[in-house]
Model the fold of this input.
Amino acid sequence: MSSSPAARPNKIHLTQGDYVADVVVGQGDHPTYYYVLQRNGSADVLELERYDTLEHAREAAERALERWSENGELHERAS
Done:
């Protein structure tokens, strides 16, 4: 009997205030996770970081949104 790896989302989209952060999975044998922080509607990348786990990338993205955003509520959409 073989087991296949658990499915993981291709992207997690977080928003807070005027900022968005996408947590994405890099391709390869050993998955790498990135978060990209941008101002909503802008192509400029404000922050880009790499992590070895989805959890660490997501936590870092949430902290970045808190730093950049004034008071706002965090929203998530997974795809």
